[in-house]
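Model: You mentioned two targets. I'll fold them one after the other.
Researcher: Yes, keep them separate.
Model: Target one:
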Amino acid sequence: MKVRKAVIPAAGFGTRMLPATKAVPKEMLPVLNKPCIQYIVEEAVYSGIEEILIITGRAKKAIEDHFDRSPELELHLEQSRKSTMLTEVQAISDLVDIHYTRQKTPLGLGHAILCAKSFVGNEPFAVLLGDDIIQADEPVTRQLLSQYQDTDRALLGIQPVPTKDVSKYGVIEPVKGTAATNVPLPVHRIIEKPSEAEAPSNLAVLGRYVLPPTIFDALEDTPVGHGGELQLTDAIERLAALNLVDAYQFQGIRHDIGNLEGWLKANLAFGLEDPNLASSMRAWLADDHIRSRLASF
């Protein structure tokens, strides 16, 4: 069965980026001149996804407005003869069929995914976290979908992380005798935010999943876990106990724009890739005054 649908959870408060996120959703923070969530929607579209559900919350209306038509702006651009900008703005609202639903109470990622049950139906679906941008030659979701064959199984996008950072992620333990390669590996178990001592590996799930519809039954049977929230990781662990979870080490650089360091790095990395900015940014970074200033910190 082709994976046609994607779910983008975007209901969090964004507390790590306050005060910027007091009135602006963290998913709308710009990386260069484009909000983070547009990169994520585009990744889904370029991976062949046909319908997207964005899970929002209170004070997230700006997300819906961004992907909607803006007749006043379009008229202004047309009258100003800014045809390139007009085309770009119109293209945003024509990207894909986007639906929205609210997570009325912030009860965790697992609860957010449960909000998508009626949208997904009895189909496998992709999940792209709303504050994770991944720079890749091939969109990461497409990488996962190209490896996804058994619709009864879950497939997790993973990469190695520094051991000191394992407590930030869901961390997998591969089935004994397997190793991360260019093919999916079976997952024995997965632990949400383990300590360094508890972590079974340094292979972390980084914001991309392909999940079977049976995940909803697992979520409904999963008790509240870490942080008093319903954890998607705990439900995936139930599938792993049935030998129904694989992991795939995708290619790309992941940026967590939910924290200041990640957001700054994302802007720098994308700026250095932009043909209109790259040469001037490299010249600025190479300037003796700038280099000495940076070295003094």
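Model: Target two:
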Amino acid sequence: MLIDTAEEPWARTLWLMVAVQFIMSAALSVISPILPLFLPQLGVAEPSAVAFWSGVLNSMNFLIAAFVSPIWGSVADRYGRKIMVLRSSLAICLFTLLMGFSQHLWHLVLLRSMMGAFSGFSAAAIALVATQIPERRLGYALGWLATGQLVGTLTGPVAGGVIADLTGNYRMTFFCTSFGAAIAVSIAYFGVAEVGGAVKDKPKLSIFKAIGTLMKTQGLMPLFLVLLLAQFAVRSVQPVITPFILELVTTRTGVATLAGFAFSITGVADLVASPFLGKRSDQLGYRRVLLICLGGAALASLPQAFVGSYWQFLALRFAIGMFIGGILPTANALVGHVAPPAQRGLAYGVTASATFFGSFLGPFSGGSIAATFGIRWVFVLTTVLFFANLIWVRRTVPEPQRA
């Protein structure tokens, strides 16, 4: 079995945080499908304007969070990681609730910006789990945490659409999401314990000096680039999946459903692979599993540029999802091993910035390449990025010493 049933003190923390991660990831993704439908109620009526502002509202969180994540990570090292989980969860709960009362576009833009500035939940959750779990089980624990995040991300948009359709009121999606986030806050506050979190007697450094000192840690800076490139490669394909499917099928009937399958099949494969690869990385070595995942992702990515049918494309999307499922858990486990324990909050804040930048830049770059050179060249780009990442890891990332 993949789930560790041993009665360990850290197990309760892990499974509760997986549940909290699931709820909060769903809360962050739940409004994606209803934004284009909600914007006309705020006075945005032109289809081109709806498309533009939907893109802005979906991506601005990533950009803002990329800049503030190291700051919150540094605060977590000083005052504890659990309080950062609570702070980010409360921010998502509050700002989502207020978005339900928006009357103008600028209300929504301001509140989404504030959510990006005050959330940073995923980095806080990883930092908390990584400091409570034995280092020999980091890959296993972070694999399950990644699974909670993925399932929440997949469930959120479906839940948002269902709530909106059942109630006939788009604002109810915001209110229900806020209620769910409040449940996650309660679980984290009452159920999750943190041992030895705060480091109040550490030297007081400015955030820039602290980051500079941290980046001198051997192997950490290369992992920053690993996470940025990996997230960039994954996100750059997403804007072109639906247009590419239109090229592969002979009819437009059911295209939205086919596109939904193409999106979700990668997530399903990721869901299967993340806990398995995370656990195996504890046994085989994090660097080795990371190299295998990057190489497999590159090999599965290239054939997508040459497929001639939808089913071939779907099979390759599943294959690439199996390998992508191991990249983030193993890379984050490596971060946990190479970063000093007293600076893990800052370390995960910095690496979270990398994933946020990749999430922000990837869709823009993928869409631009597709518009300029054609959709199939986007898959060539992702192949090059995965292979470049593999070479970079092989040359610069050491395997941590076993305890």
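Researcher: Noted. Anything on target two?
Model: The two ends are 25 Å apart (CA to CA).
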